[in-house]
TrEMBL record, chains A, B:
<dbReference type="InterPro" id="IPR015421">
    <property type="entry name" value="PyrdxlP-dep_Trfase_major"/>
</dbReference>
<dbReference type="InterPro" id="IPR004839">
    <property type="entry name" value="Aminotransferase_I/II_large"/>
</dbReference>
<feature type="region of interest" description="Disordered">
    <location>
        <begin position="1"/>
        <end position="24"/>
    </location>
</feature>
<dbReference type="GO" id="GO:0008483">
    <property type="term" value="F:transaminase activity"/>
</dbReference>
<keyword id="KW-0032">Aminotransferase</keyword>
<dbReference type="InterPro" id="IPR015424">
    <property type="entry name" value="PyrdxlP-dep_Trfase"/>
</dbReference>
<comment type="similarity">
    <text>Belongs to the class-I pyridoxal-phosphate-dependent aminotransferase family. LL-diaminopimelate aminotransferase subfamily.</text>
</comment>
<keyword id="KW-0808">Transferase</keyword>
<dbReference type="InterPro" id="IPR015422">
    <property type="entry name" value="PyrdxlP-dep_Trfase_small"/>
</dbReference>
<keyword id="KW-0663">Pyridoxal phosphate</keyword>
<dbReference type="Pfam" id="PF00155">
    <property type="entry name" value="Aminotran_1_2"/>
</dbReference>
<dbReference type="InterPro" id="IPR019942">
    <property type="entry name" value="DapL/ALD1"/>
</dbReference>
<dbReference type="GO" id="GO:0030170">
    <property type="term" value="F:pyridoxal phosphate binding"/>
</dbReference>
<protein>
    <submittedName>
        <fullName>LL-diaminopimelate aminotransferase, chloroplastic</fullName>
    </submittedName>
</protein>
<feature type="domain" description="Aminotransferase class I/classII large">
    <location>
        <begin position="90"/>
        <end position="454"/>
    </location>
</feature>
<feature type="compositionally biased region" description="Low complexity">
    <location>
        <begin position="1"/>
        <end position="23"/>
    </location>
</feature>
<dbReference type="GO" id="GO:0009862">
    <property type="term" value="P:systemic acquired resistance, salicylic acid mediated signaling pathway"/>
</dbReference>
């Protein structure tokens, strides 16, 4: 089995057959042989580079600052290499955090209904509003922000939180200083580097210059010591946190909002796992008084409805949030959404609306409940093996401590000996060193089997 | 009828009912009243700005350079204002270039089939490869680039060409100088401004500083005099052109590629209308020898299959294209695609694959044929009225000359007297002054009715 085939199993299970090439106007009908595709397969060899024609366009120096590959493709690459080494291994992926359970039928029916409608005169629609369809914006406001003072037109529907993070970075531009939780979801730091907000990567501390890394660890209850942080313009804050699984308390978020107000900073609050919260931790930053003047919130249907492949998210930019000159942040974000984006797929949006119906919400809660049961199984397993385990109560991620060990080494050992893919904590920042993130997204039998193998390895 | 309602008719015809808010965990069940949504409705009044809390984050100065709103939302705004003035007017939109005809059933069936499959264990898929699914990349390569030396892994599937243009600008960064056809699709210039590649807008010449505006007009056959252009890093070139409808000849494209090679420039070739070409003009820049070393090509299913709302496009970055230091452009683009994007919707991709089946290609050709008949009707109408008319043979746009007139004035007069929305040429750059773009996307009866009204106005 080739790398290519493995990758296609790993990342895509489309069952659509390859359709033979057909006549296209005056073009030749002779098709090229189907080449194998692999991720990141576009590196010229040194020899090619030496002799080949080069343009005179300088490479963007910010791109050159980035380290290795983006985390998850790198993990996919290692997984593929492992399969090449052990072609018969039954690999279980608890790495990338990819949803595995089918989308509830009440939602896929709406997706299919919209698809069919597009072939009728009455049901066809072309360009939608870049900001999203009005009924979906209304449903998001009333479902997630009722009584919180967020209005329909504060909400921008998108193709996912990751994409919105980059669009927000474009709004902010290169002359801002950002702070991130350490560890955190790597897209925050990488998009900051790409936009030129940072200095070079400093190998000794494993940090980019000109970013505030706000250490979150068991000692501080995974909430940073804000008194030690110098003033940032933009604070990326994810709760429940990816990767630690920690959900900030109301008191912590009150502190965070006050810190932002004291510093005149803008919080970008990533609440993509809010529906996984048990207990009364806030589900939205806007539950904190005054947050509308300092915070943007971004979220997604990916982990609620299994929309990781369908692509649908949203970002809230309250009209009360102003730059230092009084210009509304929402107005610039709107301009970016109109210029650099053309709205989420109208089919995905129809699915999103179905998600927010009473039946859809119930169905999503059931899927979330299933993954939370998986989480408990993983937590209990590592608990029983004597590990210190964090997260897992309010998030689908279990954050396992391997004190004193290099997390890529732990990742490799687990993969080598159990054929289970996890994520090394240091991939989320230097504060993740000594930890491994285990994702609870998986079929039940795979979670159980992975836990059996963990028990075998660490008994 | 309110502005809001008009806008929703204008931009979105989703028939999904508004779903009532439901319980969401511990949140209040009281919902906010449904507020009216309007595009760009996030301007604080001066009074609010004076007294409101402001953050200390400076507004990105590049955003401040942009002029007014992005063109098409601005036209939507004027259309809405017109409907407010004439609530009973039967407005016909030949402005934004939005497709109107239903998507062929062979394609929507595939969209629906994929939707349903997502609710089954076997058919479910989560995150796909950020670069697109392998079968779709293969089908794009063999359908559009057979014999041109473009391989599957040179092709990046996306949610549309407009989005890819911004992602390409992120790759290039702020230290490049770009050139655009004048007139041209406004996203090229606006994304360049946003990325900080330009100086300020110069009102007297209606151009941004540090962009080369390559004038394309009837006198030069809508192909720029390249000898008068100082060296650009990046050349945005759209053929068939939006808005002029001109398709470059093979000889012209050979000149363009040579110009890029002489200057070490990179061409971003927008071929989103290539399937509208009649005759033997090249459909892809890669038909020109040597283009793979100097050109990126971006395209889209929007105007082929009516996917303006479904969202699916692609960009070709050949591995032969290198920055001045020999680093492959594709490798940086891949990194951006992985960090700032998460792939196109898997449902849309299933639709794209169906588009490229023999039946899908035939169905797309029929839709394109329909719009081309519309184009002929519009061309003949303006011809018969004595106007100089350009475009329309290889593109769904007709470029009508109103010599000596201000194109916003012409736009306003047409709207006021015929209730037909067009697009003022100057919205595409100073070179568009004195022209109006009439889009051929419309139901046949609307095209015929619009032409009757034009004849009434200009008889």
């Amino acid at each position: 089995m080739s790398i290519t085939q493995n990758l296609s199993i790993s990342f895509s299970s489309s069952s659509s057959p390859f359709l033979a090439p057909s006549t296209f106007n005056s073009r030749s009908q002779v098709s090229l042989p189907v080449k194998s595709v692999s991720i990141c397969k576009c590196v010229a060899t040194p020899q090619e580079v030496d002799t080949a024609y080069k343009t005179k366009v300088s490479r963007n120096e910010n791109m050159g600052k980035l380290q290795a590959g983006y985390l998850f493709p790198e993990i996919a690459r290692r997984r593929s290499a492992h399969l090449l080494k052990y072609p018969d291994a039954k690999i279980i992926s608890l790495g990338i955090g990819d949803t595995t359970e089918p989308i509830p039928e009440v939602i896929t029916s709406a997706l299919a209904k919209k698809s069919h409608a597009l072939s009728t005169i009455e049901g066809y629609s072309g360009y939608g509003a870049e900001q999203g369809e009005k009924p979906l914006r209304s449903a998001l406001a009333s479902t997630f922000y009722a009584d919180l003072g967020i209005e329909d037109d504060d909400i921008f529907v998108s193709d996912g939180a990751k994409c919105d993070i980059s669009r927000l970075q474009i709004v902010f531009g290169s002359n801002v200083k950002m702070a991130v939780q350490d560890p955190s979801y790597p897209a925050y730091v990488d998009s900051s580097v790409i936009m030129g907000q940072t200095g070079l990567y400093q190998k000794d501390v494993q940090k980019f210059a000109n970013i505030e890394y706000m250490r979150c660890n068991p000692e501080n209850g995974f909430f940073p010591d804000l008194s030690s942080i110098s003033r940032p313009d933009i604070i990326f804050f994810c709760s429940p946190n990816n990767p630690t699984g920690a959900a900030a308390t109301r008191e912590q978020l009150i502190q965070l909002v006050q810190f932002a107000k004291d510093n005149g900073s803008i919080i970008v609050y990533d609440s993509a796992y809010a529906m996984y919260i048990s207990g009364d931790n806030p589900r939205s930053i806007y539950e904190i008084p005054g947050a509308k003047e300092v915070a943007i919130e971004t979220s997604s249907f990916s982990k609620y409805a299994g929309f990781t492949g369908v692509r649908l998210g949203w970002t809230v930019v309250p009209k009360q949030l102003l730059f230092s000159d009084g210009f509304p942040v929402a107005k610039d974000f709107n301009r970016i959404v109109c210029t650099c984006f053309n709205g989420a797929s109208n089919i995905s949006q129809a699915g999103g609306l179905a998600c927010l119906s009473p039946e859809g919400l119930k169905a999503m809660q059931e899927v979330i409940g299933f993954y939370k049961e998986n989480t408990s199984i993983i937590v209990e397993t590592f608990d029983s093996l004597g590990f210190k385990v964090y997260g897992g109560k309010c998030a689908p991620y279990v954050w396992v401590h391997f004190p004193g060990q290099n997390s890529w080494d732990v990742f490799s050992e687990i993969l080598e000996k159990t054929h289970v893919v996890t994520t090394p904590g240091s991939g989320f920042g230097p504060g993740g060193e000594g930890f491994v993130r285990v994702s609870a997204f998986g079929h039940r039998e795979n979670i159980l089997e992975a836990c059996r193998r963990f028990k075998q390895l660490y008994k």
